[in-house]
Recover the amino acids of this structure.
């Protein structure tokens, strides 16, 4: 009997990136909404990706089985 492959969640695949060290990175929230009102410094802060932490990380790891 062969072992079955696990399916990757396509939405999670597009939203999260896995680094070479295994960190799951996410973008910050209100990146494009009302962008004209925001200061350039704030807009640059939304461009950065930050690591996922806590129980959310375990949930996303399950959605991305081959990201580790």
């Amino acid at each position: 009997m062969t072992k079955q492959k696990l399916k990757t969640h396509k939405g999670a695949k597009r939203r999260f990136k896995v680094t070479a060290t295994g960190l799951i990175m996410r973008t910050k929230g209100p990146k494009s909404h009302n962008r004209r009102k925001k200061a350039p410094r704030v807009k640059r802060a939304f461009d950065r990706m930050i690591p996922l932490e806590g129980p959310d990380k375990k949930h996303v790891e399950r959605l991305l089985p081959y990201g580790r």
The chain has three helices and three strands. The first strand starts at residue 17 and ends at 18. The two ends are 25 Å apart (CA to CA). The chain has a mean pLDDT of 88.
